[in-house]
Amino acid sequence: MRAPIALVLACLAGPALADFDPPPAKIPTLPEAGAKAEDFAPAGWVVEAKAEGDVDGDKAPDIAFVLHGTDPALKIRNEGLGPDEVDTNPRIIGVAVSREGGYRLVAQNATLIPRNDIPTREDPFVKEDFVIARGALKVGLTLFMSAGGWGMSNLSFLFRVRDGRLEAIGYDRNDTQRNSGETETVSVNYLSGRMSRAKGSIESEPDKDKKVWTTVRAKRGPTIDEIGDGLDFEAPK
């Protein structure tokens, strides 16, 4: 009798994932001001993505950027499933608002985009979804495991600077279970205090899935630091 494919994958992936243990990464404190995104990058860090637009409502262009570490010691050889080498260098999201002569840093965060420290998980950062539009910063993440998990997710967070804090004003997540075909979509609007949740399948049309609307109790959205790891964030019940 042949073992189920899921069980085989779990047995293969388990030890390989457990043996992959990258060292801790140091997170520097960014400069308080700069004339451009690159001015906020400490030695050993590069600007991987950047966006420009108004995020604090004063109609002046602000900047947001993602810094990626380049420490060779954090590029780890992998002897299990996945690529031969995994770049586990962390990323920092920075947001700086316009000021005379340049920009002033209002937020830096190294947890929303998790480190790429699971060899069988695709890099979670979606560069194309790092944009400023309609007065908000959008940060997109993805979750896909080539082994060790059936779940697949696409997530996006919307942020604005309010009272000197980078707060979430919106959150969307689309989950798909590749083994069963079940889907779930969650959308939260912290400004209106409303949230929708819909369940369906890959065979159904998403716009026809029944949405259940609820009220978000929080008066304001969480800050980027309060969210923590973006892939682990759960919408309010």
Kindly list the characteristics that best describe this protein.
mainly beta, 237 residues, 2 helices
The ordered H/E elements are HEEEEEEEEEEEEEEH
User: Into which percent range does the helicity of residues fall?
Assistant: under 10%
- Sequence of strands across the biggest β-sheet: 8-9-10-11-12-13-14
State the secondary-structure class. Answer: mainly beta
What is the tally of helical segments?
2
User: Beta-strand percentage?
Assistant: 35-45%
The main pleated sheet reads as: 7 strands, antiparallel
Q: What's the mean pLDDT score? A: 90
The total beta strand count reads 14
- Low-pLDDT windows of residues: 1-18
What distance separates the N and C termini? 43 Å
- Shape type: flat
* Rg, Cα atoms, Å: 20 Å
Can you tell me the number of structural domains?
1
